[in-house]
Amino acid sequence: MEFDSGSAELNQRIAEWLRWDKNEKTLEEVRELARRSEWKVLGDRLLQRLTFGTAGLRGVMQAGFNAMNDLVVIQSAQGLAKYLLQCYPSAEDRSRGVVLGYDGRYNSKRFAELSACVFLHENIPVWLYSRTVATPFVPFAVLELKCLAGIMVTASHNPKEDNGYKVYWTNSAQIIPPHDKNIQTSIMENLEPLESSWNLELLLSDKLNDPYDQMVELYFRKLQANVPQPFIRDYNAASPLRFVYSAMHGVGYPFVVKAFECARLPAVVAVPEQRDPDPEFRTVKFPNPEEGKSSLVLSMQLANETGCDVILANDPDADRLACAEKDAKGEWRVFSGNELGALLGWWAIRCYREQYPDRSLSDCYLIASTVSSKMCRSIANVDGLNFIETLTGFKWMGNKSVELLAQGKTVLFAFEEAIGFMFSPTVLDKDGVSAACHLATMACYLRATSNQSLADKLNELYDIYGFHCTLASYHFCYEPPVMERIFKRIRNMGPAGDAQQDENYPQTVGAGRFKIADVRDLTTGYDSSQPDGRAVLPTSKSSQMITFSFENGAVVTLRTSGTEPKIKYYAEMCAQPGQRDWNGSKATLREMVDCIVEELLQPKENNLTPRSD
């Protein structure tokens, strides 16, 4: 095929694609774009590559090196395979193999099978789940089968057009530096697909095994052991509570059913339209229960019809959990991730004390990401536990857990505000299946022992540990240069007299009413609260993240998303135990957030689209 884009580099990339791609659909896509001289589109798709971000690789399914497709998946698997052999060169290590899982999205199974063929060609055994699984079952299998690595093909709660590739290292936690960069380098050194990488007949190899039955049985045996047996016997089995459950068109339903059975919880009332995997996600605008009431419309209808007081919802790959509860007025309250984190953090301690009444809490840890509520820190301070804060993303919390466990410490609970919860280190990643089981058990326990709702218990925790109110939302920003410009402006908003300084952040918002005490910028590495002005947490120039600590106790973080075209903000007001003006704290925080959005993000000037719900 003859073509000339006017760019030697683009010509080369087009030629490579036409030579390498053996998927007729995506091959024809590039051919057609070249025939129509769509050079800008081809440049966008072929001159950049998908790189490992917060959640591994994630992108739209279409032709191009900057998207998810057969060729990019093969290249990624080839790079990962070569890197694993570099790190583990012995035949004995190689025999430990890798584990692969996939969700119910378009192409997920095919991407997993193509990846399996790459590893099998390298004589690396493969554990390939034979059917869709919840994401936690991949890191769980890495740990239990002592594999070299794990791959989950999923785009979690992204739109239906997307897919992704999440990688777990030998320690069963998601990859962090330097592995992510080293794998990317290895991919670039192994771009040309081997003929064998397209050969699905390799799936007949005796080095391919299905871990499904073994891992499912073991997972639920361990989950059952993590729920105190008296709670199962005395509260779950006899509870009058009923739970509506939504799988959000994903893979969670059979696993949540099994989890409830093993904990002797009442059977869930499943939303029928959303129960089974459907790559179209046809009943929701976004298949993300984090969106709140807009994603739970069918769940609320079913709960109202069936008299259920609690709704549990997973995202499509079942590693997140949302919860709503009906109040005394019959209104539905959707709990935030921070509220659920407070409840589950308390519950993790309660379960530990039940199972190990003679053990001290001094070696126990609660973990949260830096943009999540500080409520677990307050609980840890009062109850004598340890609290650790990490960067955003469960990859950091999982790896921190590995460190602590190696030191003989006990990790009780980790969470992030984006409704991700790790209840016990059985899985070193967020797990919406175990979280559903523990949250339902807590609800049954509270109803039986104190006739409390989840909301009642949350208020009691605020009384004991101090009221923590949070506001988190986002604006869509579809142009990366605009994001860059917004954060560059924030770094240069200080008084004109400070213009010669490298750090020139705003000192107040709200026309001087809300004074900023400290600024931490994890993009540049600046932290005004540290004696040397350098941040303690790891920094990254590839994403934007600035945290403002105010004199009135509020903390506000602005950051770009690693997986979506969003600028997110997270705000929290932390009151002392005994402070009772909760409404005043909420109103002040709301006012501060409005000021920050208008003054720092400037949504009108920058054409930002607010969250719809």
Automatic annotation (TrEMBL):
Keywords: Carbohydrate metabolism, Cytoplasm, Glucose metabolism, Isomerase, Magnesium, Metal-binding, Phosphoprotein. The lineage of its organism: Eukaryota, Metazoa, Ecdysozoa, Arthropoda, Hexapoda. GO terms for cellular component: cytoplasm; nucleus. PANTHER family: PHOSPHOGLUCOMUTASE 2B-RELATED, PHOSPHOMANNOMUTASE 45A. GO terms for molecular function: magnesium ion binding; phosphopentomutase activity. GO terms for biological process: glucose metabolic process; purine ribonucleoside salvage. InterPro entries: A-D-PHexomutase_a/b/a-I, A-D-PHexomutase_a/b/a-I/II/III, A-D-PHexomutase_a/b/a-II, A-D-PHexomutase_a/b/a-III, A-D-PHexomutase_C_sf, A-D-PHexomutase_CS, Alpha-D-phosphohexomutase_SF. CDD domains: PGM2. Pfam families: PGM_PMM_I, PGM_PMM_II, PGM_PMM_III. It comes from the Eukaryota. It is found in: Cytoplasm. SUPFAM superfamilies: Phosphoglucomutase, C-terminal domain, Phosphoglucomutase, first 3 domains. Residues 50-190, 219-326, 365-463 form the Alpha-D-phosphohexomutase alpha/beta/alpha domain. Its cofactor is Mg(2+). Its main location: cytoplasm. This is Phosphoglucomutase 2. Belongs to the phosphohexose mutase family.
